[in-house]
Specification:
20% strand; 7-stranded mixed beta sheet; globular; binds NADP nicotinamide-adenine-dinucleotide phosphate; homodimer; 354 residues; 13 strands; alpha/beta; 6-stranded mixed beta sheet
């Protein structure tokens, strides 16, 4: 291959795809052509990337001709069908869906934590973790490298954009119906006001929190809870790590938050934990409650790092830390991580050699 | 004493007081006079209780003349000053503030869990736990009685009415400013839109979650986190129970939610846990995710019980359960529990004998 590699963005019109185009416009420009792909519904639309208007093409086999790296930001069933097609045409696929994350022949990569894993990709596919995992795993990877992780108990506060454009539209519509009212004080009054159309959520999400994300798995677990456990284990290389998690949706547009109770091999100190977090790439320590400093989604949305606050040592266990972690689910949680993986892949000898 | 006991409600005009008057109007009527007390600002206002209009009187020593039980729903500093005054006049005080909860000579009572504790009250004062503790402790008490609790890891999703009327007004005002906009997608855009007046919260609470509740204690812990630990230990009679907790405020008007990771002495089964929760007084098991059944604050607000859903056994620890618990912070979380304690006290021989 000569010159700069060609990048394809599959799903360029979606919630993640839209943010990806912004990110590609902001990062160091290493790409030759950037090709935008979506469903036939969007073919012919023009979207801005790197300051240029680029026409969207429909997803077909030929759309991958000459593509070196293909970023997939489409529903899992679309990725499942089309990622192997792109790989067969010679593109390295970086997939953002759940389709391949637990496939043993597909690495699951977070560049700050396990960059080396991206090199072994027997199927020509690299997976990016779920946004909830990504919002916390960079900070945990840094702490694990020093202290050795033994157990995780996690609760999530997930933004509606984790469910795509439809999630955002649903919250905005419901907020318009409940704002300026006295709703939220009687059983079911919010539900009656917002009507039966709860969008991608099983319950109203305005003036509410919903303890469910994803589909039903065995024994009452949700798919997003299982994903957080499986993916944390795979990215950290700890296949038997105990992980207990409850996923909850909250009325926030973008940026997922998590409370984390992390137990380590030996005693930890808050001072050392703060040093690690303050210097870890991709992490911002924002933790001074006396000065009112802790991350909230409204403040971190639109930024790249994982923000960590409320760092405390468990009062009854000197080996455990409590954290509150916040990250933009559309940036590091999705688009940014795939852009970083694509850059990792592009930097390999096979790509940079003329 | 002859006839029915006299009840005083101190703080009858507040968020909790208002709900208490409704509850007193709904429960079996065991009281003689119900006297309504608030600050001099409210003296002369008329409030409805048991279908009658009752005039509010100002808080003075004389206001407690002839009072058998006095329910205090006022700020802690007001309770600290006035509860001993009421007790000295012969009233049994049931206090809802933080003033006496950790006092070794003041029992902390949840009638479903430790009713006996209400009988030993050397200071003539009984305390009711913080609303966050109350939202989960009835369910945990039932599980503890069977399985023996060993450890708790808890995260909260706390409603704004936990911060009183000012909390509710703040959320409603902020919602009116953000509804119908595209806010929530850029760093700080919500904060700029709602302005500097964040009410009783350190950050905007609309389109946001705020990992802070209460005041700053040692080592970065918040007072509400410390309260949940101290009070769970005291109510359950487990003075050394390890409790790790992070308290987070969410844009919900009323009803607190909590995720609970509870570890027990021996192996537990989900079937037995569900049996216990389905039959425990004050608890509703609402747990069938296949049918879309799990509690949410918007559905349980205005109801009395603790609602429990998402019951799962930890995948990596057969001694631990995961739960999602939801309860109305103004009813069981405050007003109802004090009304129940008052009924317990009134049922004692000394009160019922002529
Ligand atoms: N939202 C998040 O926080 C997040 C985080 C991490 C990962 N993810 C994953 O990223 C993927 C995209 O999510 P999203 O939230 O961006 O979804 P979205 O807003 O619904 O966008 C879906 C995208 O896929 C395209 N698409 C749908 N069906 C297609 C088909 N048959 N052929 C070609 N293109 C098709 C759509 O194109 P049209 O506009 O032409 O329909 C659109 O560009 C999903 O797998 C999701 O699970 C999302
Ligand atoms: N909100 C909850 O979920 C919750 C739950 C459990 C416990 N609590 C506790 O219950 C107490 C009341 O909380 P809230 O949320 O109801 O507060 P609130 O809405 O602010 O009401 C405060 C009440 O106290 C009265 N008051 C204030 N200063 C007074 C004074 N100097 N003398 C006499 N009365 C005075 C007020 O009377 P005026 O109207 O005349 O000012 C009002 O009735 C607090 O200690 C709180 O921590 C609250």
């Amino acid at each position: 291959m000569t010159g700069r590699p060609t990048l394809a963005v599959v799903g360029a019109t979606g919630a993640v795809g839209t943010v990806l185009l912004t990110i590609l416009s902001q990062r160091a420009d290493i790409w030759g052509e950037i090709r935008l792909i979506a469903s036939p519904r969007s073919a012919g639309r023009k979207l801005a990337v790197r300051g240029e208007e680029v026409e969207v093409v429909a997803l077909t086999e030929d759309a991958f001709d000459g593509v070196d790296v293909a970023l997939f930001d489409v529903p899992a069933e679309v990725a499942e069908r089309w990622a192997p097609v792109a790989a067969a045409r010679g593109a390295v696929v970086v997939d953002n869906s759940a389709a391949f994350r637990t496939d043993a022949d597909v690495p699951l990569v977070v560049p700050e934590v396990n960059p080396h894993a991206a090199r072994r990709r027997p199927r020509g596919i690299v997976s990016s973790p779920h946004c909830t995992t990504l919002s916390m795993i960079v900070a945990l990877g840094a702490l694990h490298a020093e202290f050795g992780l033994r157990e995780l108990v996690v609760s999530s506060y997930q933004a509606v954009s984790g469910a795509g454009r439809a999630g955002v539209e649903t919250l905005r519509r419901q907020l318009s119906l409940v704002a300026g009212t006295e709703l939220g004080t009687g059983p079911g009054d919010v539900r009656r006001a917002v009507g039966d159309d709860t969008g991608p959520f099983p319950e109203p999400v305005a003036l509410n929190v919903v303890p469910w994300a994803g589909t039903l798995c065995d024994d009452g677990w949700s798919s997003e809870e299982m994903a957080l456990r499986d993916e944390s284990r795979k990215v950290l290389g700890l296949p038997r790590l105990p992980v207990a998690v409850t996923c909850v949706r909250v009325p926030v547009v973008t940026a997922h938050s998590l409370t984390v109770h992390a137990r380590f091999e030996d005693e930890v100190t808050v001072d050392r934990a703060r040093e690690i977090l303050a210097t870890a790439p991709g992490v911002v320590l924002y933790d001074d409650p006396a000065a009112g400093e802790f991350p909230t989604p409204a403040d971190v949305v639109g930024t790249d790092p994982a923000w960590v606050g409320r760092v405390r040592r468990a009062l009854d266990d000197p080996t455990a830390l409590e954290l509150f972690v916040c990250g933009d689910n559309l940036r590091k949680g999705a688009a940014l991580n795939t852009a970083q993986i694509a850059e990792l892949v592009a930097a390999e000898a096979s790509f940079t050699a003329p």
